Amino acid sequence: MKGPIISGAIILAGVFIFLKFLLPLFTAPLPASLIYLYLALALSGIMIFGTMSAPSLEALMGPIFRFLSGQGQSGMGQVARVAVLVMFPLLVGWQTYTRLAPSDLPPAENRTIHPAPPGEFVGLSNPYPKTPENIMMGKGLYAAYCSPCHGANFDGKGPAAPGFNPPPANFSDPGTIAQLQEAYLFWRIKKGGVGLPVEGMPWKSAMPRWEVELPEEFIWKIIMGEYDGAHQSPRTWEEEE
Amino acid sequence: MLNGQRILRTISIIGLFGVLGFSPGFASEPPPPGETGSVSVRMYQLEGSLPSDDPNSSQWDSVPGSEFKLAPQVHWPPRIQDVTVNSVKVKGVHNGQELAILVEYEDPTEDAADAAALEFMVGDKPAHFAHGQEMLQVEGGPVNIWFWKKENGKAVDMSAKGFKTLQAQPKQDVQAKGAWQNGIWKVVFSRSLKTDDTQDVQIEPGEWRSVAFAFWDGAIVDGLVKEKGGQKAVSSWWYIRAEPSRDNSIFGWVILGLALAAAFELVIVRKLRKGQSV
Questions:
Q1: What's the predicted TM-score (pTM) here?
Q2: Does A78 touch chain B (CB under 8 A)?
Q3: Cys-Cys crosslink for B190: which of A50, A218, B52, B132, Cβ 3.0 to 4.6 Å?
Q4: Is the CB of A203 less than 8 angstroms away from the CB of B4?
Q5: Nearest CA of chain A to the CA of B213: how many Å?
Q6: Residue B66: how many CB atoms within 10 A of its CB?
Q7: Interface predicted TM-score (ipTM) of this complex, two decimals
Q8: Quick check: A27 pLDDT over 70?
């Protein structure tokens, strides 16, 4: 009798667990609204399947309807039924409220962290050889100019970091400079936060526009020092598809 | 036996209700909590007069505040590597006409050159938090700065659009009052929510604005003022909003929703009873 209801519930739970917990292991988590949509689709599938023939209809809906109508029920069954009948309007009321109540949350921010660089920076390569002297010089310049924000350990935790939103990039995280080419860093360091396109929200970035203070030679050497110090290597042209 | 058609109809109604009633609730997701403090200031709505000229008013005690970390200004020369003020508590209130914003921060000494400032984006174009400095690919807007300094004891209403463009406005609309006690500065800034000056930020209850903070410790160290001009404690942009007045029509809709759902249940249960009691 209860077979189809229980298997329906198991399918729904399975779909939910898959979308909510398993899928994020492989890709970005789905927004709740999308998970809800998929669950609603799964539910309608179960309903359609369950109502295809009269016997399956009776098997799926019979217990539910007998529960709701309250016939032949006593004790715990009655209590559960009343609880469901009271909860449903309350839930609808609550949903109406959360839907209409003005949100207290600030606007969602969809800042693109690695927007496309301007054309003139594409394909540049570091004109300075990676000699120990050049790397040393780069690290010295990094300590003087970059470490207050990006940290002496290249981890984005410099003494000035806490005041800024977005926070200074953490170069030891494989998601930042290891994903990028030296030419990309050259652009970002030269033009700074104010050089970002609109999707990078340049008005929020504290990253300085270093071209007004540092010659290009310094910037190329800092890039070397930065990769070396963060134990990362730049993405190369061969890796591009 | 159950009547198939009626059941199908019931199911579709339940489905419709489900989608209408439930999806928006599940769809709204809270943002990830900030790692280093608040992300916005909420100006609570009060009735009557605001504690605008008294930073120590007991009216402030019941207002919940936000807290923001500050950084030494190392974004642009002249830089400073070490500042006195490392974080600030911010409270806000409004009464539909006026607003008051209280900033509270630690500074061990009271000095003539101590100063505090609030900065706002003005208008629709985004402005860079560093005085609306020029952006290369985006056309930016101006900022409005409310600057209070201990030695003048009042606020200056200022504008900037780019470095070296900071200027007092011809029309002054902001007041401020500071009080120092036991190593803590409390400064209240106040203004009307809206002004007729296009250089000013206009605060519309319910709408988000961008705000940033700056503080100067004016202590004299080795004969020089420790922090002045670009050498200050700063933040980048955060959000601020004057709470919108409560819209009571919402409760009408909630009651309507409740009533509809209850009526719907009643109809279903009655139909089921009829259908089943052969």
A1: 0.79
A2: no
A3: B52
A4: no
A5: 10
A6: 18
A7: 0.81
A8: yes
